[in-house]
Amino acid sequence: MKTKCLIIDDEPLARDLMRSHIEKLENFEIVAECGDAMKALQELRNNSIDLMFMDIQMPQITGIEFLKTLKNPPKVILTTAYRQYAIDGFELDVVDYLLKPITFERFLKAVNKYYELSTDESMSNGSVVMHNHSNGEEAFIYVKENKKVLKVHLNDILYLEGLSEYVQIYTENKKIVTKNSMTNMASKLPDTEFMRIHKSYIVSMSKIQAFTTSSVEIPGKQLPIGRSYKNSVIEALQV
Predict the structure, then answer these.
(1) CATH architecture of 3-124
(2) Which of 52, 64, 65, 230 is the most buried (most CB within 10 A)?
(3) pTM (2 d.p.)
(4) Which CATH architecture has domain 131-237?
């Protein structure tokens, strides 16, 4: 899942620099760029935004004033040429405060703070954090089991089973039980690799060895296909 970003700055050159920095990150996506807070508000209403890169000194209303008007704002990294607003920014719980001109190294440090905060919050809710890496390492997720956070490579997962408020993740070697919902798990896993076949089951498509109109077979297990999932499952598996 890519982090959806919004750039808010009334200076075109500043927007260009921020866009250049963000485009170097594989897991970040720029949803929109705005020159003032009013246009940004419209974008927030129309799109799901994870992270805002926002200037402070802007026409009509400052970034600080704009942030105070938002009930449930996304994460925010402030970008400004003025040091004196730092305290105001951190009182509003921003991720970081970047002083212009912003180097890529300093930008990357702020992004890492965002990742750390997002991971901590997700883990405190028993959620899943997925990571795709361009350095050759396989994609993996972090899941919380009891008080421990576990790293699970997607390629090791056979299937997931939902049990009330919990999800069991089965690999060839172990079973992991995490407090979560099947809906949340399905939203975090790539739909090109995993498929929900039943209200209680999500299966790794690469692990399917055979299937009928009512079930799929994976190593050591046969899983039922739910009636409401039948057509989509069969269509996805047809060669």
Answers:
(1) 3-Layer(aba) Sandwich (3.40)
(2) 52
(3) 0.54
(4) Beta Barrel (2.40)
